[in-house]
Structures are given as structure tokens and as C-alpha cells.
Amino acid sequence: KDRMAGPEKQFDTDKVISLAMGLFDRNGYEKTSISDLLAVMKIHRSSFYATFGSKRGLFIRALSEYSVHILESIRVALLDASDDYIANIQNWLDVLLGALHSGRAVELGANAFLDIANRDAEVQRLANEFFLGLENIVDRALELSGRDIQIGRLDREHLASLIALQVQSILLLYKSGVPLSMIDNSITLVKALLDTPLSARRG
After folding, report:
1. Run of H or E including 183
2. What is the pLDDT of residues 30-61, one digit of tens each?
3. Could you please report the per-residue DSSP string of 42-110?
4. Which residues pair with 10 in a beta bridge?
5. CA–CA separation, 36 and 42 (whole Å)
6. What whole-number distance in Å separates Cα of residue 116 and Cα of residue 113?
7. Pick from 145, 149, 163: nearest CA to 84
8. Residue 43 CA to chain centroid, in angstroms?
9. What are the CA-CA distances from residue 126 to residues 27, 115, 133 (Å)?
10. CA 199 to chain centre
């Protein structure tokens, strides 16, 4: 916890970062003002600058911590949900699609994550790390599935990379406002690849 400016008040840093992340994700980085953030976070302006330095400083910190949180939730969904790891991946893709259809994409960090990545090197680095982390989790799930992944020239690592890239594309498509039917088709394609008979791993 950090002290607020003023009489012996404190705030929970994790809580206010979470509140800020929700606001960034709903409004986007550019449309979120310092006044908006202070109203949601309920901290004093002096405490804001003393703790985070700037709106960008808060955004980078929130994005970094939120990325860790989201990757951990994906790890649990893909590696811990059941011993059917292919089904775990497919179920997580369904959850992703459901979040987009119901307007709960803010839970994914999609808007905030992609809002300024193309013009801010630090945000781009965090985005790259996030999708690499996603690829590694998917690759591990495919490995644990006990299948020898080989679809034409596509091996396990290629499939993991393809799925991570497809998720990134889906979030970009969602942010750009394309019809959800296009996103449905993208996820259906990935799930179809996972449904393709995969040869059992040879001992």
C-alpha cells in the first residue's frame, strides 16, 4: 500500500492499478484523461504523480501487471483444467469468443493492450512478451496432450505459434470493429486444426 497525500490515508496500489486498467481498456489510452483516472482510482493528484510519474507510467505498470495476470489465467485454463489438453485449448478459445460476443473484451485487456502498441516501443515490447508467453503455454499444452503433432508441414511448435498469432489477429479484428462473424470463422479454423486427427506420439 502507498500513502495518499493528505491526512494519514493509504491506498492499495494493486487495487487502483486494476481500476485504472479497466478504465484504459474501456476508453483506450488516448481518451483516458488524468481526471478520469483520479476519479476512478480515488487518489489525490499528488499521490498519482508520486507513485506513477505520469499517465504513461501508470499505463505501462498496469499493462505489465495485467499481462502477468492474464497469462496466469490462460496457463490455468490450458494446463490445469483437465488432462484433455486439446479440449482445454478449444474451451479457452470458446471462452475468448464468448467474451467478445458479450462485450466483455475488457476482461482480456484487448483495447488497452493494442491501443498504442504500434507507436510505443515499451508497449510493443510488452505485447510481444505477452504473445510469446501465450505461444509457450499453448506449446506446452500441445506437448502434454501426448500427440505427435504433424499436419502436413505443420509441427507442434508451428501450430502453437499459429494459434498465438491467430489470437492476436482476432483481438486486432475485434478492436477494428469487423463483424463478429469474421472472428467466429477465425476461431473455427483454429479449432478445426485441433480437431484434425493427430498421430499418437511414437515411443
Report:
1. helix 180-195
2. 889 999 999 999 999 999 999 999 999 999 99
3. T--HHHHHHHHSSHHHHHHHHHHHHHHHHHHHHHIIIIIS-S-HHHHHHHHHHHHHHHHHTT-GGGGTH
4. 3
5. 10
6. 7
7. 145
8. 27
9. 20, 13, 10
10. 31
Per DSSP, 193 falls in state H
Half-sphere CA count of 140, side-chain side, radius 13 A: 13
pLDDT digits (tens, 9 = 90+) for 129-181: 988 999 999 999 999 998 776 666 678 888 899 899 888 888 878 777 788 88
pTM of the complete model = 0.80
Amino acid at 70: I
Backbone phi and psi for residue 150, each to the nearest 5 degrees, phi listed first: -155, 100
Q: What is the distance of C-alpha 45 from the center of its chain?
A: 29
CA dist list (Å): 86 to 74, 75, 141, 146, 191: 14, 13, 7, 10, 9
Question: How is residue 43 written as a grid cell?
Answer: 487518489
SS3 category, 115: helix
